[in-house]
Amino acid sequence: MNPRNPVPARHLNLVDRLIQEIDRGLRTVAAANVSARPFPGQGVEETVHDQTARKHAAALMRVNHAGEIAAQALYHGQALAARNPAIRQQMLTAARDETDHLAWCEQRVRELGSRTSLLAPVWYAGSFAIGVLAGISGDRTSLGFVEETEKQVVEHLDSHLHELPPGDERSRRIVAQMKADEDRHADEARSKGAMGLPRPVRALMRRTARLMTRTAYRL
């Protein structure tokens, strides 16, 4: 069985699905993720040699990797609680894109001589719980959560395109492809009837993301 295309959820009972999600979580945070698509920076020469610049670029890509850990967990949590099978499948399909992002970010962090976040299990567990809560609240609200999350992620990635060291085309191509994918996820959620989230919820999401970003930059 292909781990990227597990047994359809409709054939599993709740306990089986929970076990499947635990397995997914362990694979995400403890195993090397493999992308289905080519590495965006493939064939691009390494240009970041200054140690300070390398450290900064690695920290930014570590933040992006942590964000993708959280995105995987959110989508899997939302898929677990989704009521409509089509919405569940949409969440799982989006999660597969995030697997590519995880693999790309991890590869780039390693190339720059650094490591991924030490708090990856925390990011996954917390985000999975949030995803389940979003899913329980209803499919339209869950889709609204996807739309708002991806909107904020796109803004974050856009800032990284400006913060990366000049000439770091390998990192920049990864971030640009991630941004395009996240934009598409937001558009898909909107087209499926996403419900707008209240302003306090959107503000809380921004504050939480900011805390995660600052922490993952260092840890």
Task: Give an account of the 3D structure.
By secondary structure, this protein is an all-alpha fold. 73% of the residues lie in helices and 0% in strands. Helix 2 runs antiparallel to helix 5. The protein is globular. Mean pLDDT is 88; it is low at 1-9.
List keywords for this structure.
219 residues, mainly alpha, disordered N terminus
Kindly report the oligomeric state of this protein: single chain
Q: pLDDT under 50 segments (min length 5)? A: 1-9
Radius of gyration: 17 Å
The biggest beta sheet reads: none
Blueprint of the fold:
Layout: H1 14-30, H2 51-81, H3 85-111, H4 120-136, H5 139-163, H6 169-191, H7 199-218
Helix pairs in contact: 1-2, 1-4, 2-3, 2-4, 2-5, 2-7, 3-6, 4-5, 5-6
